[in-house]
Design goal:
Largest sheet: 6 strands, antiparallel
CATH topology of the largest domain: TIM Barrel
Shape: elongated
CATH class of the largest domain: Alpha Beta
Number of strands: 13
Structural class: alpha/beta
Amino acid sequence: MLIDQYRLTTSVHSNWQIQALAKAPLSAPVDVYLKVNSGMNRLGFRPEHVSNAWHKLRSLKNVGDMTLMAHFADAENPEGLIEPLQRIDRAAEGLDCPRSFANSACTLWHPEAHYNWVRPGIVLYGASPSGNWQDIASSGLQPVMTLTSEIIGMQQLNAGDGVGYGYRYHAPQAQRIGVVACGYADGYPRHAPSGTPVMVDGTLTQVVGAVSMDMITVDLTPCPQAGIGSRVELWGEQVKIDQVAKAAGTVGYELMCALAPRVPVKVI
C-alpha cells in the first residue's frame, strides 16, 4: 500500500475506508483525518454519524493520530461559516481531538476557524480565493506562475475590419494588432473575451477577437514600439491570473490546472 510505504496521512470520509483500514496489512499505524460534511455535501460524514465513525477508527490498531477536518462551500462570504461551524461543533461534541478546517479564505479572513491547523490552497499560488485580486493585493502574496509568449505576426486593420473566428471584434478605427503564439490548446481560456488584459513589452493592452487553438490577437495601439518577438505576459507578475480568470468567467485554479503539457515549463 502506498499509504504504508510512504507513511502518508490519509483522509477518511466514508465507511468503506474504515473497513479498508481495518483489513489493511500495514507495517505501522497511519495517521488519519476524519472528514465532517459541513453542509457542502461533497465528501464527509454527516454530523450525527461522526462520533460513531470516530470511535470505530479509534478502535483500529492500524490507526494512529486522528484529526477532525472539514471543508467550506462559501468561506468567501462573511456569513458563510456560521451554519457550517455549528454543524461541526455538533459533530465534534464529546471528542477531544485536533481540528483542521481553514481553507485559503478562512486562513485569510476567518480566524475563528483556524483551530489547530490551517490548510491554505489557492493562496499558496498567489491567487485570491474570492477570485478578486484586490482582496489579497495588500497581503504580500506573490504569483508563482507566469505564462509568457511572444508576438509572431502583425496585421494593420482598417476601420470595420473583423478579427478572428466569427468576427467577434471589429476595429473601430485604423488599428494595428499583434498575433501571439498561445491559444486554448496551451491552456489559455477559450472564452476570454475582447478586453481581457494582456501585457506586451511591459505595456498593458487587451485581447481582441476570439481565442484560437494556437493564437491570440491583441491590440497594439497602446504599444506602437511592439513588433515581432515582443514579449507577451498573459498572466503573472503584471497581469494577475485572477484578472484573466474573471474576464473569462472562471477562477484562477482552473487556469493553473489547464496549462497544457506542450507548454515548456521553467522552474525558477
